[in-house]
Design brief:
This protein has helices at residues 2-21, 294-303, 347-353, 415-424, 479-482, and strands at 23-26, 37-41, 48-57, 65-73, 79-88, 92-98, 102-109, 114-121, 126-133, 143-147, 150-158, 162-169, 175-181, 187-196, 199-207, 216-223, 229-234, 240-249, 255-263, 274-280, 286-293, 316-324, 330-340, 356-357, 373-385, 391-397, 402-406, 430-435, 442-448, 455-460, 469-473, 489-494, 499-506, 511-518. 34% of the residues are buried. Strands 22, 23, 24, 25, 26 and 27 form a 6-stranded mixed beta sheet that branches. A 4-stranded antiparallel beta sheet has the order 1-34-33-32. The chain has 5 helices and 34 strands.
C-alpha cells in the first residue's frame, strides 16, 4: 500500500508539473504598448504553431532609450526566444504584423522626426533594422500590412495637399515598388488594406476637407507584384455609401466584402442605415450586391427568431470574419458598437483602469486636458448568407458591454479606422472560430472583460440554431488579484487542438500571465 501511495504521489507531481509548465509570466510590462498575445498561424494548415507578444520594458541601460521586447512561445508556453530592441524613449509603435514567415514592426518618434523599421524572423532573430528621417512631424506615422512575400507600408503625404503612398518591401527592407497619389482638390487617404492570392485590395477615400462627412470611396485592386492597378469599384451606388470592414479573397481571386452603409455620400454618420454584402469577380465586375436596412429587414429577421431578439435602432457594426460555408454561402461574424461623447469623463479613472488608447496627457489649445471619446462594444451578430447574397438567418448574441476611452490621435479618426485601431489594441471581444474536438461543430471563442468576473466564452454558431455560450472563468494566479478592483486586460488566442491560450494583464503588478485551458461546452 505504501508503494502504491508513493507511486500515486509521483504521478500527481508529474501531472502538476505538466500543468504548471503550461503557464508563463512576463514582468515589467508597460500597459501603453501592450496589445495582447497573438497566435502564430501556419499559413498552410491555418492552425496555431505558437504565440508571440510584444511590450515595452523601461529598464534600458542607455539614457533616453527604452527596450521594446518581442517574446515567442511554443504551443505549451515554453519561451523560445526573447528579443530586445532598443528604441528612443518617445518612440511609439505604429504598426506590427506577421506575414506567416516574418514579423515587421514600425516605430515613430514624432519629436525627433524619425521612423524605425524592424524585421525579425519567426524565431525572433532580427533580420534587418532601418531608421528613416522625415521632414515633417505630421508624416512620422504609417500603417503596416502583411504581404504574401513581404509587407506594405501606407504613409500620408502632406505637402500643399494631403494624399498617400503605398510601398511594398521584402524581409530585407528592400523597396519592391511604390505608388503615390495626391488629389487636385480635397484630400485622399487609404482606409483599409487586404492582401490575398496575387492581388492587393484597398479602400481609397476622397473628402472635400478633413472634417467633411461627405466622401467618395472606392475599392481599388492592385497587382501584388508590380503595384499596377487592375480595377476599381465605386462604393457609392447612387443612393448610399458602403463602408466595408472585412474581406475574403478566395482561391479564384473573387473578393467578398461587407459592412455598413449610409444614405447619401457620407462616410461619417451617427448611425448606419443597414448592412451590405458585395461579391466582385476576379475582373472587378459585380456578381452579387445586396443591402438590408435595420428598420425593416434586420428587425423582421430578429422578430421571426425563436427568442424574439431586439437590436437598438441603426447601430454601427464591425465585421470581423467572412467564412465561406460548404454550401457556397457565407457566415459573417460581427460586433455592434457605439461612439459617444460622455457627459462626465474621468481621466484619473481611465488611468486607474487602463482601458483607453491614445495619449491620455493630450491638451487642447487652451492648455486643458483633452476630453476622451467613449467607444462602447456591445453584442455579437452572426449573419448567415446564401450564395445569392440573401440573409438566410442571423444570431444575435447578447453580452456585457466593453467600454474604453479614446484620446488623440485616435479620437479624430472616422468610424472604420477607429474600429480597426481598437481591434489592433485587442479590445474587441471576438477572438476566433474553431471546431469542438471530436466533432464538426463550429464554435466562436471570445472574451468578456466584465468588471469583477471576466470570462472566456465558447459559443455555438450553427446555422439556424440558437446560440448557446459556455463561460470559462479566468484563472487568477493569486487570491489578491481575484479580489482586485482593477479591471485587468483579458484575452484569448488559438492554441493546440482542444485548447485555448488565455492571458491577462495585471496593471498594478505590471505583469502578463498566460496559461492553457480546455475548450468546453
Amino acid at each position: 500500500m505504501k508503494k502504491i501511495t508513493i507511486l500515486l504521489s509521483l504521478a500527481i507531481i508529474m501531472i502538476s508539473g505538466s500543468v504548471f509548465a503550461q503557464e508563463a509570466e512576463i514582468n515589467n510590462v508597460r500597459k501603453r504598448e501592450f496589445r495582447g498575445v497573438r497566435a502564430i498561424i501556419n499559413e498552410q494548415t491555418k492552425e496555431s504553431q505558437g504565440y508571440y507578444t510584444f511590450y515595452v520594458d523601461e529598464k534600458a541601460e542607455e539614457k533616453g532609450m527604452i527596450k521594446f521586447m518581442l517574446e515567442i512561445y511554443d504551443l505549451d508556453l515554453k519561451l523560445l526566444n526573447k528579443t530586445p530592441i532598443t528604441i528612443t524613449k518617445r518612440s511609439v509603435i505604429d504598426g506590427s504584423v506577421f506575414n506567416g514567415k516574418n514579423f515587421f514592426f514600425l516605430f515613430n518618434d514624432v519629436w525627433k522626426k524619425k521612423i524605425t523599421y524592424v524585421v525579425a524572423d519567426i524565431n525572433g532573430k532580427i533580420i534587418n533594422e532601418k531608421v528613416v528621417e522625415v521632414e515633417k512631424r505630421a508624416t512620422t506615422t504609417a500603417d503596416v500590412y502583411p504581404a504574401n512575400d513581404g509587407f506594405y507600408i501606407v504613409k500620408p503625404l502632406k505637402e500643399k495637399k494631403l494624399g498617400y503612398s503605398i510601398t511594398k518591401i521584402d524581409k530585407d527592407l528592400k523597396e519592391l515598388w511604390t505608388i503615390s497619389n495626391t488629389p487636385d482638390k480635397g484630400l485622399l487617404s487609404i482606409e483599409a488594406v487586404e492582401a490575398g492570392t496575387d492581388r492587393l485590395i484597398l479602400i481609397e477615400l476622397k473628402r472635400p476637407s478633413l472634417m467633411s462627412k461627405k466622401a467618395y470611396a472606392k475599392i481599388m485592386c492592385l497587382d501584388e507584384k508590380t503595384g499596377k492597378q487592375l480595377y476599381e469599384y465605386p462604393l457609392f451606388d447612387g443612393e448610399a455609401t458602403c463602408i466595408p470592414s472585412a474581406f475574403l479573397i478566395d482561391k479564384d481571386a473573387n473578393v467578398v466584402t461587407g459592412g455598413m452603409y449610409f444614405e447619401g455620400e457620407k462616410w461619417k454618420s451617427v448611425n448606419s442605415n443597414g448592412i451590405f454584402f458585395l461579391k466582385l469577380g476576379a475582373d472587378g465586375k459585380k456578381q452579387v450586391y445586396k443591402k438590408v436596412d435595420w428598420d425593416e429587414g434586420i428587425q423582421d429577421l430578429l422578430k421571426s427568431s425563436k427568442n424574439k431578439l431586439v437590436i437598438g435602432s441603426k447601430p454601427k457594426v464591425f465585421f470581423h470574419d467572412i467564412v465561406q460555408a460548404g454550401d457556397g454561402g457565407y457566415q459573417i461574424i460581427s460586433e455592434t458598437f457605439q461612439k459617444t461623447m460622455p457627459a462626465i469623463s474621468s481621466r484619473l479613472g481611465d488611468m486607474i483602469s487602463g482601458r483607453y488608447i491614445g495619449n491620455i496627457n493630450s491638451k487642447n489649445s487652451q492648455g486643458k486636458y483633452e476630453k476622451p471619446l467613449r467607444f462602447v462594444i456591445m453584442d455579437f451578430i452572426i449573419f448567415n448568407y446564401n450564395k445569392e447574397g440573401e440573409i438566410s438567418n442571423l444570431n444575435k448574441i447578447p453580452k456585457d458591454e466593453t467600454k474604453i476611452s479614446i484620446y488623440p490621435p485616435y479620437k479624430s479618426m472616422p468610424g472604420l479606422r477607429l474600429a480597426k485601431a481598437v481591434k489592433e489594441f485587442g479590445y474587441f471581444d471576438y477572438a476566433f472560430t474553431t471546431k469542438v474536438p471530436g466533432s464538426d461543430q463550429e464554435v466562436m471563442v471570445s472574451r468578456n472583460m466584465s468588471i469583477g468576473n471576466p470570462y472566456i466564452g465558447v459559443t455555438t454558431i450553427a446555422k439556424g440554431n440558437d446560440a448557446t455560450t459556455t463561460k470559462i472563468p479566468i484563472k487568477r494566479k493569486t487570491a489578491k488579484r481575484a479580489n482586485s478592483k482593477e479591471r485587468d486586460f483579458v484575452g484569448v488566442v488559438k492554441s493546440k487542438t482542444g485548447y485555448i491560450c488565455v492571458y491577462y494583464y495585471a496593471k498594478k503588478e505590471q505583469t502578463v500571465h498566460l496559461y492553457l485551458d480546455q475548450i468546453k461546452l
